[in-house]
């Protein structure tokens, strides 16, 4: 009730009434799992010994999400599924959204990629999913995360009101069906079925390259243009910042360790600083941009959030579809916001220094990276006259890395 009282300060009374009424009838059932027979059919569990676990309990690979009693200001609901490969053969892991119903609308003829984007951004509530790795090596694992949130004040009262009106009409229709037929099972406002798949790993150009996972450490000599064994002036400790590097990709993006004493300068001298750092390097480099960093931090569908003045924090969400990353970046700038993420999940981005990102925020400011505290860091706007460090992104060829 306290959350609903607070909501009166944010939304109009009509919107609040519709939202409240539409979700009172059915007890919330966040996540349900079908029987283990489903997992046996899909992944050959006897031959593979692939095990799906939630809170240390063996579950199916089919996740059913039903949302009923949700409301603005709700606590973020989180579900994690561990995909454990207990066998001796490597497995390819993927997931597919098999069914979505929002009120009376069932989504067909739409790809999983489109649905992921839609559920992440097009409603006042946000449903986000992420698979940590597209494979599980023998005796290894991957992890699938889902988060469901509805900010108290997400900045779009019209969308809250629209959803509330439609949800109210849906509620009335469902109740009338129950009156007409006492055996009728009232439907929740939203249903989603997600299936996680584990299959025999068959390496193709489109397969995840297991040698270059996000965050992997690689020692790379920028003068000799090859891997090295011991950190030195030219042998740099670097981290893979490709989110989904494929076997068919010929280049790997590497970010040098941010504890290095790189050149500092105002933003106007960014290019000059880059040239100074990379002078004598034999490897190809380019500037660090926001697309690089947003692709990385958005893989955390729980802790990576957008912070805006006088609005609730909102999960960054999936940014992979179409031009979504550009659109969302503009929205953050227009709201005078910044990005906040967890240091433990992205330790290679944890730095007490400020680092320029070669992406302008507005005329007088550019994006920069720095630590907030021991828990969090941020991508924020920094005055272009400030003095921050500059770091290049190394574009290492796989031929040089394998030499």
Written account of the structure:
- The protein is an alpha+beta fold and 403 residues long.
- Helices cover 23% and strands 33% of the residues.
- The chain has ten helices and 25 strands.
- It has helices at 2-7, 13-22, 36-43, 45-48, 112-121, 157-180, 270-278, 290-297, 324-334, 398-401; strands at 31-33, 50-54, 57-59, 62-67, 77-85, 91-102, 105-106, 126-131, 135-136, 141-149, 190-200, 217-221, 226-227, 235-240, 251-256, 264-265, 284-287, 305-307, 314-315, 338-342, 355-360, 365-371, 376-383, 388-389, 392-397.
- The strands form five sheets. Strands 1, 4, 6, 7, 9 and 11 form a six-stranded antiparallel sheet that branches.
- A hairpin with a 4-residue loop joins strand 12 and strand 13 (226-227).
- Helix 2 packs across helix 6.
- It starts with a helix and ends with a helix.
- The model is unreliable at 1-47 (pLDDT under 50).
Keywords:
403 residues, six-stranded antiparallel sheet, disordered N terminus
Please outline what is shown here.
This protein has 403 residues and is of the alpha+beta class. The protein has ten helices and 25 strands. Strand 21 (355-360) and strand 22 (365-371) form a beta hairpin.
